[in-house]
Amino acid sequence: METASPPLETASADELQSLEPSMQTVWSIKRGAFATITAFAVFFYDLAHLFGTSALPFGVLTAIVAVLGVLYALIWPRLMYRNWGFSIRSEEIYIEHGVLNHIRTVVPLRRIQHLDVSQDLLEREFSLGRLIVHTAGSRSSDVVIPGLNLKEAERIRDRVKQFILEDPLMEDPV
């Protein structure tokens, strides 16, 4: 005898779930690495043009890039985190994100083809995962929810998979 799975959690638009707070740290580390590489590249550019004619004194361009890199690595992840929210509703996944360009995405559960839970090396260190939702269609057919606790991402994946398998509209008529 099959037991029915519990229904998916429902939430209103005001009840968006946040990402794990440690996602800010992951984003900061990734952006910090990018900013460091960029600052080194600009430093070597400054060094190569040390004796040439330049509008800026030696090191000023490197300092500007370094300051902007620090701001990019420390402030931008906080803004991204603050503007990320998602909700698993009875028949859809709702996602809001974006700092400068606010994006609201609705994925009907019936349109989901398959689901993946993924981790990169840094996310693995923080026990975080990404839920990747592959939908029917060709344009923007992958929707990603980053910064989930790995067990939570797997739980959401399994619950949505169960909904897809039990959906009466998806079954063949007898």
What is shown here, in short?
With 174 residues, this protein is α+β, with helices and mostly antiparallel strands. The chain is built from five helices and six strands.
How does this structure look, described?
This protein starts with 21 loop residues before the first helix and ends in an 8-residue tail after the last helix. The radius of gyration is 22 Å and the shape is elongated. It folds into two domains: 24-78; 86-168, Pleckstrin-homology domain (PH domain)/Phosphotyrosine-binding domain (PTB) (PH-domain like, Roll). The protein contains five helices and six strands, in the order H-H-H-E-E-E-E-H-E-E-H. It is an alpha+beta fold. Helix 1 packs antiparallel against helix 2 (60-74) and helix 1 packs antiparallel against helix 3. It has a three-stranded antiparallel beta sheet with strand order 1-2-3. A three-stranded antiparallel beta sheet has the order 4-5-6. Strand 2 (92-97) and strand 3 form a beta hairpin.
Low-confidence segments: 1-7
Q: What is the total tally of β strands?
A: 6
Q: CATH homologous superfamily of the largest domain?
A: Pleckstrin-homology domain (PH domain)/Phosphotyrosine-binding domain (PTB)
- Individual helix count: 5
Tags for this model:
single chain; 174 residues; alpha+beta; PH-domain like; three-stranded antiparallel sheet; 22% strand; elongated; disordered N terminus
Topology (SSEs and partners):
Elements: H1 22-48, H2 60-74, H3 76-82, E1 85-88, E2 92-97, E3 103-108, E4 112-118, H4 121-125, E5 128-135, E6 142-149, H5 150-166
Antiparallel strand pairs: 1-2, 2-3, 4-5, 5-6
